[in-house]
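Let us practice reading a record.
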Amino acid sequence: RIMFRTSCDPADTERTAAAADVDAFVRRAAARARPDADPDALGVACWALLHGLAFLYLEGKLPTVPPAAVDARVRTSVGALIDARRPGC
């Protein structure tokens, strides 16, 4: 909640650098997972999915479960997103 309740200040070099690092990490992960896909589009989709899942848990919209169950749901959800437009799926 702290991360997303205010806009990023472009003058805050530490925050800007951290956002750039996250963006680069997500793009690399997307490119490794789906070399045939647009890494920008897939990266944004994955980040949006994870952000949404985090808020669903924080707001109590998803049941409270042990961390291992959250990990499994996140991995399964991201896997489904990555495979969604794979030929033959």
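A brief commentary: The chain has three helices and no strands.
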